Amino acid sequence: MHKGKLGLGTALVAGMAVTGALVLAPAASAVSPDSATLSFDCGSFGSGSATLAATQDGTSATITVSTAAITSPINVGADSVNSTLVMSDASGATVSFTGSSNPAITAGQPISTGPLTGTVTSGDALSGQSMTIVVFGITATCTATSAQSPGPFQF
């Protein structure tokens, strides 16, 4: 009977310790909304809408871009698209998100890129301003032609 009480007491103490650790653990930062859309004009490469998906972990943020503004004329291997997405706040200050990660893209399919990484400050409210995509040494420069919807990312 003594062993049963000891086991139960140990389990209760361990459970309280885990619960206390969870309560004291810092909450992960969140970005809101987690996705948004806007339109880009990429000159002779095309124009169209883009979906931006954002995540945040402290001061590090990532954005994945999927856009119908540019389609690939040929097959593009994974991790071969270099991209920079420039986001701006209401005052015009900018933050660049960069990366060279992408899924394999077959000819005729829209370009997807990311995660693109950047550094944010708590309270930043950022909207897409421009995007540069480099594939096989060919650079497409895109300018946002609409407001980001449902609004800026709040970091």
Description:
- The protein is mainly β and 155 residues long.
- It is built from one helix and nine strands, in the order αβββββββββ.
- It is globular.
- The model is unreliable at 4-27 (pLDDT under 50).
- Residues 1-30 form the signal peptide.
- Keywords: Signal.
Q: Count of DSSP helices?
A: 1
| Low-pLDDT segments, ≥5 res | 4-27
Q: State the distance separating the first and last CA atoms.
A: 55 Å
Q: Let me know the average pLDDT.
A: 85
Radius of gyration: 22 Å
CA-based shape: globular
What is CATH's topology name? Immunoglobulin-like
Task: Give helix and strand order, one letter per element, not per position.
Answer: HEEEEEEEEE
Number of strand elements: 9
Output the keywords.
Immunoglobulin-like, signal, 9 strands, mainly beta, 155 residues
What is the compact description of this entry?
By secondary structure, this protein is mainly beta. The protein is built from one helix and nine strands; from the N terminus they run H-E-E-E-E-E-E-E-E-E. A hairpin with a 5-residue loop joins strand 1 and strand 2 (47-57).
